[in-house]
């Protein structure tokens, strides 16, 4: 799977969340909980994924491309998201 992202968006993400998009290569996609992001009317189909990176739950927003995915946002999951993830995956 090819992973792409905007380098300017990556710099903003590093400043805002302290997380480089390059770490997405270590994200555990195999056990991730993935669903379509329908919170807003985007001009593209977006997905949200919750999965592990270095023993910590992370949030990824991405869209599909012809050859893989494009990362939109990547950060540590907050407490509410961790609780929701645990409820959905452990039950």
Layout of helices and strands, plus pairs?
Elements lengths: L1 E3 L2 H11 L15 E4 L9 E8 L2 E9 L3 E9 L2 H12 L1
Parallel strand pairs: 1-5
Antiparallel strand pairs: 2-3, 3-4, 4-5
Report on this model:
It is built from 2 helices and 5 strands. By secondary structure, the chain is of the alpha+beta class. It has one domain (2-90): Ribonuclease toxin, BrnT, of type II toxin-antitoxin system (Nuclear Transport Factor 2, Chain: A). The protein has a 5-stranded mixed sheet. The longest helix is centred in the C-terminal third of the chain and has 12 residues, at 79-90.
Concise overview:
This protein has 91 residues and is an alpha+beta fold.
Secondary structure class reads alpha+beta
Average pLDDT taken over every residue = 95
Give the strand content.
35-45%
Write down the secondary-structure element order: EHEEEEH
Identify the notable features of this structure and list them briefly.
25% helix; alpha+beta; Nuclear Transport Factor 2, Chain: A; 91 residues; five-stranded mixed beta sheet; 5 strands
């Amino acid at each position: 799977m090819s992973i792409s992202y905007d380098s300017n968006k990556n710099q903003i993400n590093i400043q805002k969340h302290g997380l480089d998009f390059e770490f997405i290569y270590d994200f555990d996609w195999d056990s991730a909980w993935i669903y379509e992001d329908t919170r807003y009317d985007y001009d593209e189909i977006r997905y949200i994924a919750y999965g592990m990176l270095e023993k910590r739950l992370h949030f990824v927003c991405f869209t599909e491309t012809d050859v893989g995915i494009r990362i939109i946002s990547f950060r540590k999951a907050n407490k509410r998201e961790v609780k929701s993830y645990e409820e959905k995956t452990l039950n």
